Each structure stands twice: as structure tokens, then as C-alpha cells.
Here is the input.
Amino acid sequence: MEIFALFDCIITPACLISQTAGGLKIGMLLFLVASGLTLVFGVLGVINFAHGALYMLGAYFSWQVMSITGHFGLAVISGAIGVGIFGLIFERLLINKVYNSDLLVQILLCYSVILILDDLVMIIWGDEFLSGIGVPEVFQVPPLFIFDAIIPPFHIAIIVISMIVALLLWIIMTKTKFGKLVRATAVNPRMLEALGINTNVIKAGVFMLGSFLAGLGGALAASLGSVVSGMGNSIIIESFIVTVIGGMGSISGAFLASIIIGMARSFGAVAMPLFTDGIMFLIMVLVLVMKPEGLMGKKK
Amino acid sequence: MGFLKKDNFERDAFIGLIVWIFLLIFYFVIPSPGIHDIIQKVFILGLFAMSLNILIGYLGLVAFGHATFFAAGAYTLGLFLQSSIVNNLGSLSIPAAIISAIFISTVLAAFIGAICIRLKDIYFSFLTLAFQMLIYSIILALVSITGGDQGLMGGFPKPPFLGIDLGKPFDFYAFTIFISIITIVLLRQLIESPFGYGLRMIRDNPDRPAALGFNNQRHKLIAFIIAGSIAGLAGSLQALLDVGAYPEWAFWAKSAEPLFMILLGGMHSFLGPLMGAFIFEILNDFVTANTRYYGLVLGLVILSFVLGLRRGLLDWLLIKFYRK
Here is the structure.
């Protein structure tokens, strides 16, 4: 453990700023994925273990559109929308059959989908690493220097995009009729049905929105790194951590927890390079032991 | 539980002995190292899955970090046999190493279990997952002891004891199956004991045993510790087989394997998980020999069990042919 390295970093503006920006970038990307997971859990009561596989699909879809059209924005949007549609089919065909099943059945169903999708993308796109979709031309400029900290403008763009998505999600959930119906479905679906509202449509819509967010996260991740089968298997665990720390079903909690985890990863890499993941799990254990309902979850 | 109806130690032990002798004869009748390998792996993985089923099938607790104890057993055995203790213990090394492996996983299970059983449902599952990944991160970080992501390399000696040389394939085969069968017979005693029925009561209606003066939490903890110790034994046998230990054994995906076996074989029959291990191993062997896309096939099989059969194969067979 290099506690002094961490101390040195905190008192050096360059290191402090670049690590903070890095942490925000990691955290905000994580929020895109984890918010979908927590939304689906909060409304449908299903732990979608296959959420990471949807993230992977988003990366592959955007890679495919990028290689055909060469247009970055189009690639990202179609990655997200493509996964949203895929999620809708997934929900209608499989997930809706296990809404009232045991946790074990839900986990196994989702895990089988992970196994299938991981192999299907290998059959379709090959098992080599695909070199991402890269950064759009607008952002292919020299990095910004803030107090000697090197910050790529594209990272700022990712943070801003994610913040906008978070804001939109908040507006949808709190200010629109759809959001009200979604929250009502989470609390009392029977009552909604008695009022003549088809909750199946709402559930499918929520799952589609959750999948869209996973796809968007995957598409943006494809611009920062490579695309490979199984890339969802670590993001899903990180999304679980965020979901648990923030409070299961709480989107604002997921936002807070994503920033915490992003910072823990960024500064953890300075302090304990070999144990960066361990720090996240330690936080998860501590939250579950001391406040199982999460930082912003409702106590049962 | 079908054809083994009551708890009867002598008869169970006798059946176990017959099965063991049968498998020893089988070894010479079918002299195929590949098949022998599958059989010993089925028993090792079967122990792993049966130990998890104490929690899942009999207690209704979906533990999602069971590989923690498997890995703890494997690493303890490997580190023990790599250490200089072997020089002093000589022929007692292997039994001592297995006992230490069980001991360490038991202690770990007592510690983790005492914290986890305070939570319910999904929170319990998440906490077991979190502990598992914490242990995984620790294994990766302690490079000088565990070898980090390379795993425990360099092998270790397997000094013969009581005339058993685990370096010889037959000795290993006979020993592994013998230990597994003893454990399974003892586990059956536990499951059919008042303690075992207490677990089922807690699963079905936790308020009732509590009202009867049961200490539910203590029951859960003891079950968690026993499950962890058996998983540790399975891990130590796996380490003996592979002459090493690997961090993937502590990764969350390893905890999904016994879940598959329980699903495939059945969680409501005592030997269901063992049958699941058999199906899993056969599938693994057959599919990997024919295609690279093992996950695709396994995924489709699991999907058809989850949505089609809706229960494990042994559960299904028992309902269809035995119970009316």
C-alpha cells in the first residue's frame, strides 16, 4: 500500500485534478449502465444479471454501424437504440416469465443469456479484440491543461453526456406521466390494472429503457477502448456494487454511488494499484453490513 | 428422498462401500484415463454442489459466493504442501494438508457466515458475492504468497501415506472417490437428522421454528459453516488433482457452476446436485470436444431446464416414476 503516493497526489493540483476527472469519467460511464440495472430492479423486481451482456451488445452494435457509416454520433445512438429494441424482445420472450419466480431462477435465466450472447457475438464478429470506434474528429485535438493536469476533451464530453442523460432520466421519472406510472407500477401494479392501465406495457417500457442505458454505456465504452466478447462480465459486477451502495432501485443513489466508485477506482489506482478492485468490494461489504438498504434506499 | 427413505447409517455406509468397490472394478474394466478423470471430477464438483445445496435446497438461502471456500481449501492445501512443513511431517503431509484446508475454510465460513446470515434474500446473496470478490481481490493482490493472477505455480510434492501414493492415477481415483463417498454418507446423516429437518422448517416458515424456541440464526450459521467446510474439502481435492490453485476458482463465475449443477440435477433430492455435476461434466467433455462454443450450448441447456423442465433431472425422475 502506497499511502504516501496518495497523499502526494492529493496535495499536487495536477494529480488531484487529473485523478478527479478520471474518476468522474469512470463513475459517469458506470452510472449509465448501473442506472438501467437499478431502474429495472426497482420497478420489475428482477436482478438482470444479463445487463452486462446488453452493454457488450451496445458496443458491438455501435462498432458495426461505425464500420458501415463511419459516423460517430449515429453509431452511438444506434448502439443504444438497437440494444433497447433487443431488450424489448428479451423482456417479452424470457424475462416476463420469471417476474414472480425465485431469485435463483432469475439468476440462472439471466446467466444462461450471458453465456449465449457471449458466444453469439464471437460467432458473428469473431473472437479477436475489435479496436473500438475511436474518438470523433471534433475531439481529436490536443488535451486541455488545467493546472498542469492533462485532460482529454473527449473525457469531458463523456462526463457531460452522462450528466445530461442523468438529468433526462430524473425528469422522465419525476415530471412525466410515464414516470408517474412507472413509480406507481413499482408500488402497486394491481391498483394500476384496476384503473385500466396495462402494466405489461409499462414493464416492457422500463426494461427497454434500462437496456437502452446499458447499450448507450457500451457504445460510449467502445469509443474509449476495445470491443470483445465477455466485456460485460466486469461491468455487471461494478453495476451491482453501485446498485447496492446507492440503494436498490434508487436512481439518485446510483448517481452518488457511481461517483464514489469512480473516485475509489481513480484514487485507489494511485494508493493501492494491485487492490483497486478490492477497495470497491470492501465499500460494498461495509455498506451491506452497516446500512443494507444502501445510502439512499428506502428501509424495508 | 426416493429409494433411500430413512436415515440409516449402516445401510447408507454399506451402499457407499458397494458403489466405491463398483467404481474400483469399473476402473479396470474400462481402462480409459479420460473416463476415470471425468468420474473423479464428478465427485469433486458433486461435493462442491452438494455443499451449496445445504444452503439453497434445504435452507432456501441463495449464496452467491460459495467458491470462496472452494478456493480457500485449494490455496491452503497448495501453500501447505509447498511450505517446509512437509520436510518435518513426511508421510503425514497429505492428510495434514487436507485437514488444514478444511480447517481454514471452516474458519473463513464461520467469519463470513456470521456476518452474512444477518441479511435476507437478495441482500444475503449480494453480501456473499461481495465477500467472494473481496477474497478474489486479496488473492490477486498478495502476489508474493498466492502468485497473483498466475495462480499457485511450481507444483508441490505429494508424499505417500498409508501406502497411498496420490501421484499414481489409480491411488488418486480410489482416494478421491472414497473421501467423497464418506462425506456424502455423513452429509446424509446430517440432512436426515433433527438438525436437517430444522433447516427445512426455517426454509418453509421461519416464524414457526422461532416460535418453538429454535435459534434460527444459529441453525443458519452452522449450516453455512458446514457447507463452507465441505466446499473447502472439494477445493483441496481439486488442488491435489491439478497440482496448483488458480484465482479463477475464487471468481464469481466459479460460484455459478454449482448453481448450474443444482439446477440440472435437482435441489429437492439429496443426490440431485451430484447428478447435476455428472450432467455438467459430461456436457463439458462432450461439447468442448466438438465445438468451441461451449457457452452457447450450456446456456441453451440451462434455459431449457429453467423454462422447460422447471426442475432438475433427478427431481423430475423421482416425481415421474416414484412419487405419485
Summary: The interface with chain A takes residues 56, 62, 64, 115, 118-119, 121-123, 125-127, 129-131, 133-134, 136-138, 140-141, 143, 148, 252-253, 256, 259-260, 263, 292-296, 298-300, 302-303, 306-307 of chain B (CB under 8 Å). Chain B has a mean pLDDT of 89.
